[in-house]
Amino acid sequence: MEKLDKPLEAWREELSDTQFHICRLGGTERAFTGEYYATKTPGLYRCACCGNALFDSDTKYDSGSGWPSYFQPVSAESISEHEDFSHGMHRIEVKCAKCDAHLGHVFPDGPAPTGLRYCINSASLRLEPREVE
Predict the structure, then answer these.
(1) Domain presence at residue 3
(2) Within a 10 A sphere around the Cβ of 76, how many other Cβ atoms?
(3) Which domain covers residue 33, as residue numbers?
(4) N or C: which end of the chain has fewer CB within 10 A?
């Protein structure tokens, strides 16, 4: 995937304050406050920064964590994973593979078939609803 490289100031102009804080500075939103944590609308979740396809609603589930949770990304190439030792913890950070936006973290306590829980900030996502037949 070709990387999108853009100066921080350009991102600051394009994103809301919340999106900038989360996506570009690695922040997080409070649990149960994000736009998509309880959404059941079928569709494709794209990166709020660059539009890269990240997660499908078919893999979304209610983890009880207060953040949108998925058991797998649309493809292994759509995200990147990085060790994160911030806040006195060891976690695996999830970023958009195209623009390096911070999305959230992945944990090994999810449902079958992967056993993974991608815990993602709503502000880093944009839902593209799917037509329901």
Answers:
(1) no
(2) 10
(3) 8-129
(4) C
Check if 119 is active-site. yes
23 assigned ligand-binding residue? no
CATH code, domain with 28:
2.170.150.20
**What residue type is 7 in one-letter code?**
P
Choose the catalytic residue: 74, 79, 119, 120.
Answer: 119
Structural domain count of the chain:
1
User: Using CA atoms, how far apart are residues 11 and 41, in angstroms rounded to an integer?
Assistant: 28
**Domain membership flag for residue 2:** no
Please state, in angstroms and rounded to a whole number, the distance separating the CA atoms of residues 11 and 99: 11
* Tens-place pLDDT, residues 30-63: 999 999 999 999 999 999 999 999 999 999 999 9
Residue bearing tokens 């944590």: 37
Spatial CA neighbour of 125 closest among 32, 18, 30: 18
Distance from C-alpha of 112 to C-alpha of 129, rounded to nearest angstrom = 25
